[in-house]
Design brief:
The protein has 14 helices and 16 strands. The protein is of the alpha/beta class. Strands 3-4-7-6-5-8-14-10-15-13 form a 10-stranded mixed sheet. The chain has a 4-stranded mixed sheet with strand order 9-16-11-12. Strands 1-2 form a two-stranded antiparallel sheet. Helix 13 runs parallel beside helix 14.
């Protein structure tokens, strides 16, 4: 009798477990179909004929059309003929809506930066801090050309802040072309929102180190800087590396400063550059930075690799100059340029371009700083603004050909300086 009851109870439990298992299978099947349907819907959103509906009528997906047009031009070759440039591959709402004669204060300062696709994940935190117009030049090679085109389009589609503020430009080798990514479904699989696109970029981050690109391809850093700069129409521009972070509220503080005192046309505003341990949170203001500086968690940029390259900034003077939290941004002091200083700065959009003969590692930024000096510019250090590089720069992190590239660019720099004598015959300045 007891055995019979136990058997009946066992059958009931077993039956219940089977029903639960069947329901789970049905649920998983539903999720799979729903996910597939959602993916098809997202793909249709990305490449369908419309970007949604307005008043019941299809709305044209102008981002898709803009990308298609940009790619159909085939880009333009740089002066060397070695690289193909797609300017304004994707335009932001800010740039698209900018009209001649609009309020100049609405377009006072743009941040310009450059990167390969494996460092593009830094864009998320950079834009979160900056929150103003940003111009990004991306270099891609080989299969990364398709990947970069697809992911840039996905970023501009899924990320509202990127739609609003970021212009993208693409540079590849002259023998390569970028194509419309409509058939590259593998690059879009799993992309459902902005976070998923940055997650994909995060997974791509360690493909290669610094300038060590496969196929012995040279990273054209100065070409990229110029492309990013030329993609802006603002009165002032600051060119930084994508793994650097400006101080918070820099845009608003600089706007207030130039409204109060109109700068001279031959003045650039130096942003003291620092580097911070990877584990540390990037400081937002000078008080936070100085606190980290005093305990060794923040140090001058390139302190280990080339202390002379940033020493003229006079870090001790800047750190020890007291700045009230409520104080407005102003010029703390002015410095005469000396070799081999290569400061990061905010400058008029009319400053000389970077020399595109410099590629890979060495002398690419100092050559432009040198030209600014010979051309008559003065270097004014800002009182409380700064930029911070994520992580300490150390010798062991660089690619194998760094020293070889540095030697080659050193020779090029000597020739470059001689050329400045011809370019600026009336200047008595030399570097």
């Amino acid at each position: 009798m007891h055995l019979s009851k136990k058997c009946s109870a066992f059958k009931v439990v077993l039956g219940a477990l089977l029903i639960v298992a069947l329901l789970q299978l049905l649920y998983l099947s539903f999720l799979s179909k729903f996910h597939g349907k959602q993916q098809r819907y997202r793909y249709s959103e990305l490449f369908g004929g419309s970007g949604g509906k307005t008043n019941g009528h299809p709305e044209k997906n102008w981002r898709k059309e803009r990308l298609r047009y940009s790619l159909s031009t085939g880009g333009i070759f740089d002066n060397s003929g070695q690289y193909r440039v797609y300017k304004s591959l994707i335009k932001s709402d800010f740039t698209t809506n900018l009209k001649p004669g609009s309020d100049p204060s609405s377009n006072i300062l743009t941040l310009a930066t450059h990167t390969t696709i494996n460092n593009l994940h830094h864009l998320e935190s950079l834009l979160e801090r900056w929150q103003n117009p940003l111009s990004v030049a991306i270099f891609a090679h080989g299969e990364d050309v398709r990947f970069a085109t697809a992911l840039v389009y996905a970023l501009s589609f899924f990320c509202p802040q990127i739609q609003a503020l970021v212009d993208f430009h693409l540079v590849c080798l002259s023998g390569e072309t970028a194509s419309f990514p409509e058939k590259d479904r593998e690059h879009f699989a799993g992309l459902e929102d902005c976070a998923s696109v940055f997650l994909r970029l995060e997974k791509h981050r360690d493909k290669y180190k610094n300038y060590d690109i496969s196929g012995n391809v040279s990273y054209p850093n100065n070409l990229l800087r110029n492309v990013a700069r030329s993609g802006t129409e603002s009165a002032y521009v600051s060119v930084i590396d994508i793994d650097m972070m400006p101080s918070a509220d820099l845009h608003q503080q600089f706007l207030a400063m130039v409204r109060k005192h109109k700068p001279a046309g031959d003045e650039v505003f130096v942003l003291p550059a620092f580097e911070i341990r990877h584990a540390r949170k990037i400081p937002a203001n000078k008080a936070e930075l100085v606190q980290l500086y005093q305990v060794g968690e923040v140090r001058p940029f390139y302190e280990e690799l080339c202390p002379r390259c940033q020493a003229p900034t006079n870090y001790s003077r800047w750190v020890n100059s007291h700045v009230r939290e409520t104080a407005t941004l102003e010029v703390a002091y002015t410095i005469a340029w000396v070799d081999p200083w290569e400061p990061f700065y905010i400058g008029p959009n009319s400053v000389p371009l970077f020399d595109e003969n410099f590629k890979q590692y060495g002398f690419n930024r100092i050559s432009q700083s040198c030209e600014l000096f010979v051309a008559g510019y003065k270097f004014s250090v800002l009182s409380s603004a700064f930029v911070v590089h994520r992580g300490f720069k150390i010798q062991g992190e660089f690619h194998a050909r760094k020293d070889e590239e540095n030697k080659r660019n050193r020779v090029l720099f000597r020739s470059f300086k001689e050329g400045l004598k011809t370019k600026y015959p009336s200047s008595i300045r030399r570097c």
